[in-house]
Write a structure and sequence with these properties.
- The complex is a heterodimer of chains A (270) and B (289).
- By secondary structure, chain A is an all-alpha fold.
- Chain A has a single domain, classed as MetI-like (MetI-like fold).
- In chain A, 74% of the residues lie in helices and 0% in strands.
- Chain A contains 14 helices and no strands.
- Chain B has a domain of 190 residues: Orthogonal Bundle (MetI-like fold), CATH 1.10.3720.
- Chain B is built from 13 helices and two strands, in the order H-E-E-H-H-H-H-H-H-H-H-H-H-H-H.
- Chain B has a two-stranded antiparallel sheet with strand order 1-2.
- In chain B, helix 2 crosses helix 13 and helix 4 packs across helix 7.
- The chains are: A mainly alpha (270), B mainly alpha (289).
- At the A-B interface, helix 1, helix 3, helix 4, helix 5 and helix 9 of A face helix 1, helix 4, helix 5, helix 7 and helix 10 of B.
């Protein structure tokens, strides 16, 4: 009994080790600036002063909107195009299918360090620097998503597809009207991984966006923290970090199981 | 007519991907080969300089420094990651209450942006007001310059990265542990094997593929390290946290040495692929025995 209690106490301390910094961030962002020296979790009064400072100093609302537009566009693109290729690879016969599959696997193993500089130059040549296009278009295709769709579609009975074909559906209708409604787990998994990756992406925006009104949230918060505009006001820094973390954490609370499963399967594939 | 339509559909479906592949992957890879032999700052015309970029690379102290820094990161990050993740995975693999809660708690740092995590740990590592130094002072020990001392800065970042990622590896190890057939343990029990014997002779070989995955993901992670040093140290002190990607970034977007930055990117990519291939061979040989 006592062993059991110690065991749980230990586990609880472990869990606290991973949650405490976030709880501290939240409480410190709500505390008056004078109380930030303490690392206690409950401030004497709750104030939104730090948040209003952030809103005054940087276009954080605009950045939130930019991040949302960019992430949702990428998710939509990856789901539509990824499932199209996944469907062709898993269910249709055509010349070059093997080669295409090989290419997709190859792009998964290609380190991004090699394409970083030439992709930036491409953005300059296209005139896409400081536009949404630079943030969205390069991410519209994702090899991992294609592989996951291919895998999932292979488990769907051929009868379902044949029946739809007899009813006169074309391939696009089969994909979006028959396969999609039967592939909700795959759509959620791919959607969550893609949303998380694009919401948290910071290197690429730092490279292609200089106009503050087009910056994504992680980028703006980073530049706020390192660029000196936070004027070493810890409360404001932590408030901006909280605002950046909040949307993902809220999504995580609702889709917790899917988050963990999605990340685990994506790790497996690599 | 209908037949021909069916015949063309697959190509219609994969066409967006193929176009995207040529524009954003195939062309950039080819273009990076081209860039490696040139000097270019994007504004003035490109200048062919032959193998000069490679000559410069093998004489570049910072290039080797960034590889060394990545190795330091990996030497600390990989074993720590495996030990901590395996430890918690073993615990969570037993019948315990609130398993979902604990799993969710460990996983929280995985989903949050590295920007947030780095900003938080910057406060923990702070010299005067950081939590770690306050704890040290309160038990009568001297303050430590976690991010100030060159020999400590990269290890500090490695510990932070472990904290951020360990939840993912706990989940991966949990999957791995559950794939070990329970009969093996039952047979071992009959033979009178103790806990440690069971761990070393059954569990560990059983999760070899997971260990390989952790190794590969950590290697990729180490060579992709960017935002952590960018926010915390800017690559300092004395270049001790200059990572591979931060160095490419500096050459490309501080100095606009596009040719040299492309050369760096190419060489780092080769190194990553080589290291991963070596790890694969090593682990496969181990599990062959």
């Amino acid at each position: 009994m006592i062993r059991r209690a110690i065991f749980y106490l230990f586990l609880l301390m472990g869990a606290l080790l991973f949650m405490y910094p976030f709880l501290w961030m939240l409480s410190a962002s709500l505390a008056p600036e004078t109380e930030l020296g303490d690392l206690v979790l409950l401030p004497s009064e709750i104030t939104l002063q730090s948040y209003s400072q952030v809103i005054d100093k940087i276009p954080i609302g605009r950045a939130f909107l930019n991040s949302l537009i960019v992430s949702l566009s990428i998710v939509a693109g990856v789901l539509v195009f990824g499932s199209m290729v996944g469907y062709a690879l898993s269910r249709l016969r055509f010349k070059g299918r093997q080669l295409l599959f090989f290419i997709i696997i190859f792009t998964m193993t290609l380190p991004f360090q090699i394409t970083l500089i030439p992709q930036y130059i491409l953005m300059v040549e296209f005139g896409w620097v400081d536009t949404y296009l630079a943030l969205i278009i390069p991410y519209l295709m994702n090899a991992l998503a294609i592989i996951m769709f291919r895998q999932y579609f292979m488990s769907i009975p051929q009868d379902l597809i044949d029946a739809a074909r007899i009813d006169g559906c074309n391939e696009l209708q089969i994909l979006f009207r028959i396969l999609w409604p039967n592939s909700i787990p795959a759509l959620l998994t791919v959607g969550i991984i893609t949303f998380m990756a694009s919401w948290n992406e910071v290197l690429w925006p730092l490279i292609v966006i200089r106009n503050e009104d087009l910056m994504t949230m992680p980028q703006l918060v980073t530049l706020f923290a390192v660029g000196g505009r936070a004027e070493s006001q810890l409360g404001a820094k932590l408030a901006s970090a909280t605002m950046l973390a909040l949307p993902i954490v809220i999504a995580y609370i609702f889709f917790q199981r899917y988050f963990i499963q999605s990340m685990a399967t994506s790790g497996m594939k690599e | 007519m209908a037949r021909k339509y069916v015949h063309l559909t697959p190509y219609f479906l994969v066409m967006p991907y193929i176009v995207h592949f040529f524009v954003f992957i195939a062309f950039p890879v080819l273009f990076s080969f081209f860039l490696m032999f040139h000097k270019w700052n994007i504004i003035s015309p490109m200048e062919f300089i032959g193998l000069h970029n490679f000559y410069r690379l093998i004489n570049d102290r910072l290039f080797f420094r960034s590889i060394f820094n990545t190795l330091i990161f990996l030497v600390i990050h990989v074993p720590l990651q495996i030990v901590v993740a395996l430890f918690f995975a073993e615990i969570l693999n037993q019948k315990i209450r609130l398993r979902g809660f604990f799993r969710a708690a460990f996983f929280l740092p995985v989903i949050v942006s590295g920007v947030v995590v780095t900003m938080l740990w910057e406060q923990l590592y702070g010299f005067d007001t950081g939590l770690l130094n306050r704890m040290l002072v309160s038990v009568g020990l001297p303050k430590v310059g976690w991010l100030i001392r060159p020999e400590l800065a990269m290890p500090s970042i490695a510990i932070m990265a472990t904290w951020k990622n360990v939840g993912l590896y706990i989940v991966l190890f949990l999957v791995g542990l559950q794939s070990v057939p329970p009969q093996y343990y039952e047979a071992a029990d009959l033979e009178g094997a103790n806990r440690w014997q069971k761990f070393f002779y059954i569990t560990l070989p059983g999760i070899n593929p997971t260990v390989l995955m952790v190794l590969i993901l950590s290697t990729i992670g180490g060579f992709s390290l960017f935002i952590e040093p960018y926010i915390m140290t800017g690559g300092g002190p004395l270049n001790s946290t200059l990572s591979a990607v931060l160095y490419i970034y500096k050459q490309g977007f501080f100095y606009y040495h596009m040719g040299y930055a492309a050369t760096l990117g190419f060489c780092f990519a080769i190194i990553i692929l080589l290291v991963i291939a070596l790890q694969k061979r090593f682990i496969e040989r181990e599990s062959g025995n």
